[in-house]
Amino acid sequence: MTELLDPVAFLRAHTALLAPPLVPEIQLHLAIETAPIWQQSEEALGAMGLPPPFWAFAWAGGQALARYCLDNRHLLAGQLVLDFAAGGAVSGIAAAKAGAASVLACELDPFAIAAIKANSAANSAVLETRLGDLVGTDEGWDIVLAGDVFYEDALAQRIGAWLQELAQRGALVLIGDPGRAFLPRERLELLAGYSVELTRDLEDRELRYAKVWKFR
Fold first, then answer.
1. Sign, Cα dihedral of 1, 110, 178, 31
2. Cα 65–chain centre separation
């Protein structure tokens, strides 16, 4: 039970440093086995009011965003970057490696914050972390990264409206998404697409085609 109260201990017990298939330049603390960490943490962390461990997996949208950042370093160089709903911060770490002046990774889960700090250290990347909901705020970011965030209708509408506002005032808002149901395609411009290897027990297939979009 002690490790369930200690994010760092939980991280050490249930993850290993692994390189996501699409971004082998980056190592993340990822779940050793999908089912055990999900079941245990959903039961124990749920009782504590904490969300499931989304941070323990390299989701397709986040990997696609990270690959795009690493392949387009000129866009990130010297920029102020927000990695929104960062999970394990694969996109934020890629942005830091691409030369961003600063990267803020935000999450609602203290276990995700612990993972971001551990992942940043493993990649010699400097990221600031923020525990809390930043939707509706604007701290002058030049670039906002959002991977795999359009999976629930009400949440997608709330996040989408905020990201649209940031784009309209001049931020480059980049979305990584493997075809989630509530992606606002009508407001986006397609930039790139990648085939991303996944485990079948994480998604419903072993390969997903994830795209990188920007808000118009």
1. negative
2. 9
